[in-house]
Amino acid sequence: MKYLALLFIVLISGCSSQPLSQQLSEFVIEEAFEKATNTKVSYDGSTCPNVKRACSKGDYHEWYQANGQKACACNK
Questions:
Q1: How far apart are CA 13 and CA 4, in angstroms?
Q2: Are 42 and 54 in contact (CB under 8 A)?
Q3: H or E segment at 7?
Q4: How many CB atoms lie within 10 A of CB 12?
């Protein structure tokens, strides 16, 4: 499953304004942070309802990023 996410990032990198190395490093840092803190973070507002639904026993938060897009997290 981890490799599927990595493949997805590589495939969409051609449509992005960020270099692949930056996208990959952000992905790796985010995954490591989530595992170390037992937190699920989403920077895509469309996935926040899924994060909220899965966060029945956690502390759910939503916020708006500097670019105006919604983000959310579930701290377990």
A1: 14
A2: no
A3: helix 2-12
A4: 11
Query: What is the rounded (10 degree) CA torsion for 49, 10, 64, 72?
Result: 40
Angle at 18 (CA atoms; ends 13, 23), nearest 5 degrees: 65
Crossing angle for the helix pair 20-37 and 2-12, nearest 10 degrees?
A: 150
The model's pTM: 0.56
The DSSP-derived string for 25-72 is: HHHHHHHHHHHHHTEEEES-GGGHHHHHHH-TTSEEEEEE-TTS-EEE
pLDDT per position as a tens digit, 32-58: 777 777 788 888 899 999 999 989 888
